[in-house]
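Predict structure. Input: Stage V sporulation protein AE, 118 residues.
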Amino acid sequence: MLAMFFWAFVVGGLFCVIGQLLFDVAKLTPGHTLSLMVVAGAVLDGLGLYEPLMDFAGAGATVPISSFGNSLVHGAMQEAQAHGIIGIITGMFEVTSSGISSAIIFAFIGALLFKAKG
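Output follows.
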């Protein structure tokens, strides 16, 4: 159990280090860094490497934004096998819709409960 926490911390930390290096060394904007991390997760899933990483690192690989790219590609590939070309489009939305819906709902509730400083 302790090893699981250790590897989740190490892998999650490596994602953070990569993101920080993209900010500091490559001088990328937050939007570019975010997009690059999502695309990296998508490419790793397309190559079949993200699933073993999630099995190994647990939350260290499922919490970072790269997991969103993994979810997009994973859903598209599953639905493409089941429904053909139309499954590529529907699969991305089917797998990620609960997370996106939750973010919208909680952001709305937060906006109702708290006053923004401007």
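The chain has one domain: 2-113.
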